Amino acid sequence: MAQFDRIIAIYNPNSTNNAAEKAEQFKTAAKKAGFTVHLERTAHAGHAEEIAFAVAKQYTRPLIISVSGDGGYNEVVNGVMRAKHTDNTKRPVVAVIGAGNANDHKRTTRGNTPLLTLIKRNKPKPIDLVRLTTKDIERYAHSYIGLGITPEVGIELNKHSLSFVKELQIILKTFRDFTPFEIIIDGKRKRLGSLVFANIPGMAKVIKLSDKPTLNDGKFDIVKLSYRGKWRLILDMLLLAIRAKRSRSASTSIFRATTKRPVQLDGEIEELPARSEVVIESIHEAIESLY
In the chain, what is the greatest distance between 2 CA atoms, to the nearest angstrom? Predict the structure, then answer.
């Protein structure tokens, strides 16, 4: 298959972990390898999605790289999917260079393989996405959709250099103001501490979500922690740092949010309206990626 007709690297100049520097270094290394990379800097929240949408609409086979953490990559994925919905002849490919606070997707799917190596191989592979739909919202996640304490702790853990003591301090601090939430699923009201629909086996370097990757099987893992008090929930979270909780896989899950509730998609925050029906779906081979 022909090589990409445009290579774009999108970065936030104000990002932590030297996103701008990493973007420039990648551009220089790519030039030495014979590839031209065009850098695009973001100016505000949501700008990466706008850039990815415009590039995916303009070119037939672009490679759109996010130099970011999971949140920035989430924006790129959503921009590309919006473009694909408006023109199904477009065949964009996405990739990520880990920057920002952390990038669980890159860590769990590509490991230490250099992106330039994958560009030279020119063998993009399809990945599933997890889609959240309500009456007013349609958003995609490349790694997970989560409610409750697990994604909250994950985001906090990703902000710090970790040691066991630091992890414990962060977990206890996050729990201090945490309150459980309720959903209605299969006609039953459930009181939960955490609910995660995961496309990757782990998050925040230490939290284990499953024993196997689920990136391209048409399903996601459902990791659910019932709420039986704060100390029991703390114990359940610590156990997730040791081993994955036995979970079930599904291609679709439907529940109703009883109250207004934040939901996290790869660290990006949306708000579920009270009494809204929420549909979570695995979109099989939704997008092509280098990993």
Answer: 59
Q: Which two tokens stand for residue 283?
A: 């979109």
For 254-286, how does the pLDDT look when each residue is reduced to its tens digit (9 = 90+)? 999 999 988 999 978 888 999 999 999 999 999
Whole-angstrom CA distances from 288 to 64, 92, 93 are: 11, 7, 5
Token pair for residue 218? 């048409």
Of 138, 256, 275, 140, nearest in space to 195 by CA? 256
Model pLDDT, residue 265: 93
CA dihedral over 50, 51, 55, 56, signed as positive or negative: negative
pLDDT band at 1 (very low <50, low <70, confident <90, very high): very low
Separation between Cα atoms, residue 17 and residue 169, nearest integer Å: 23
Q: What contacts 43, CB < 8 A, 6 or more positions away?
A: none
Take residue 96 and report the two structure tokens written for it: 């990520």
Please list the residues that pair with 224 across neighbouring strands: 195
Give the span between the Cα atoms of 254 and 10, in whole angstroms.
34
Is 216 within 8 Å of 285 (Cβ atoms)? yes
Of 214, 77, 195, the C-alpha closest to 142 is: 77
This prediction's pTM: 0.87
Q: How far is it, in rounded angstroms, from Cα 50 to Cα 47?
A: 5
